[in-house]
Every structure is written in structure tokens, then in C-alpha cells.
Amino acid sequence: MPHPAPDSGPAHPTTRVLAMLELLQAHHRITGTELARRLGVDERTVRRYAARLDDLGVPVVADRGRHGGYRLMPGYKLPPLMLTDDEATAVVLGLMAGRRLGLPGQATESALAKVQRVLPAVLRDRVQALRETLGFTLPARDAVEPSTAAVLTLAAAVRERRRVRLRYRSWQGADSERDLDPYGLVFHSGRWYVTGHDHDSGEVRTFRVDRIASAEPGTATYRIPAGIDPVQHVTRSLAGVPYAHEVEVLLETTLDQARRRIPATVATLTETGEGVVMTTRAEHLDGMARMLAGLGLPFVIRRPGELRGHVRDLARSLDEQAAR
Known about the structure:
Layout: H1 13-26, H2 32-39, H3 43-55, E1 60-63, E2 69-72, H4 85-101, H5 105-117, H6 121-133, H7 148-160, E3 162-169, E4 175-188, E5 191-198, E6 203-208, E7 212-221, H8 230-239, E8 245-251, H9 255-261, E9 268-271, E10 276-282, H10 285-295, E11 299-303, H11 306-323
Antiparallel strand pairs: 1-2, 3-4, 3-7, 4-5, 5-6, 8-10, 8-11, 9-10
Helix pairs in contact: 1-3, 2-3, 4-5, 10-11
């Protein structure tokens, strides 16, 4: 459970005892020499710290011999949380920020409530004040929650390079089963995506995790090709989603300036001798006209021709508003 730091200095003996407990939690077995090095003490002091933990009810086993060291007694259950004030505050702030970014709301709220319940009273009151007064400039996003089992299965599959069998429903409502070699998970704008080699199509594809009904790991393994960047692949895939209109506009600016104004998920940018060619898709051309106006850059519309009419309509509307 969270505890107040007993002393602000890192050299305080109690702080070091707690640091030793954290090291024992993180390692199945660790030598006395390594513990002494990490804690900045000698091995005799490490033996004293082990005895101190034992006095506190934490059974530390000292194994002698060439492969000896210190470990926690098998089967011993440690408290679910042991955080300093700073660590507990960081967890709370992380959950608050995650909720704003669009991480699953129900799980985030319940985790936040559990952490706050076990905070020391003074810190709990201060954290609550922070929750009530902290503002964000980033607009809140509505999350689409995937199956937690699917997220964890895919994460394990990526780490172990293990092929998975997916049951997937497309945006058109078509159900399919496919084998996927997942390359990585990406969280973007409130949605989870997985990208990898799809054996059904023979291509690298991106799938929304909330549309995955089930993910079953198989026995086949694979290698991730060199140069694969799941984040870049997902952003390029989202930029290429089909819409009603294909748009190509020449921006009279540099590539760096264009990138600062236009996210990779919105359009593809190509530098030329005349400037930067922006290619994208749009469902509604009046919205594209507003986007171009908001860039604050000189531009030349290449296609579609109808976009010019929408830009003129927007210009007339703005002129009328300015005259009021």
C-alpha cells in the first residue's frame, strides 16, 4: 500500500530497506554483492536489512554457496501496492491523463478510485484537490473499448512472435477468420489498432482491436521484417481510408512547415520543386475548404475541380461575416 517517504534523503536506512524489498520483488534471486552495489552499502549492511525485513514479517531467504543470494520465500504474498507519495501521485495523474486521451473509461475510473482509497489521508485530500482543479487543453476523446483479453493476447503474441487466429468483423459488418503475424499495437485517437502480416491477403494490414471478437495464439512463430514501424503503418493506413473525394493540393511551403500543420493520419505529403503536394481524401468538400483555409498557407487546387467552388463559397461567407 502507499506509504509516506520516511525521510527526504535517499540514504535514510528505512528508505534503503524498502528499496531492497523492491529489488527482491523484481528478481527471483539476487546476490548480496549486487544488492550492496545497488543500495550503496556493504554486504554486512545487506544482511542487517534482510533481518529487518524478516522482523517486519517479510520472509527473506538467504541461500549460501556459489549460486547463493537473497530471495523472498516461495508463496509469500506481498502487498498489492507499495508506492511513495511521488509514485502514487504519478499513478493518479497518469490515469487522469489517460482518461482524457481516450483510454477505457470504466477501467480507468475504477483503478483511480482504488488507488485513491489506499492513499494516506493527507495525500488523498491533496490528490482530490488536484482532480477537482486540473484543466486540460487537449479535448477529451470518446474511447472505443476493445476486449481486454484481445489486447493482452495480442501484446503477448507480439512479444513472443507468435501467430494468432482472429475472428474479425469489418466496418461493413462482414465476419471473417484470419491468421495474423502481429507486429505491434498502436493507440490512436481513442482507438486501439494492431498491424501485422495478414495471411488471408498476403499483405501488411491494420485492424481495429475493438472489432476483434477473439484472438487465439497458435504455435507458429515469425520474424518481424527490418524497418517495420507499426505507428507509421497505422497512420498511413488511416490516411488512406476511402472517402467520397480524392484531393490533391499543392502547398507553397516547405515540407517541415507542412508537417507541423498536417498530421500524418490526415494526408500524405510529398516534397517537389514547386512546394509540397498534399494528397488526401474527403467525405465533404466544404470541410476540406475550411481545412485549407485554416492552414494559413498559399495553395493551388489540382483536384477535384469542385473544391474550388467550395473555397469560393467559404470566401464569400467570410467576407459577409467581416462586413457585419
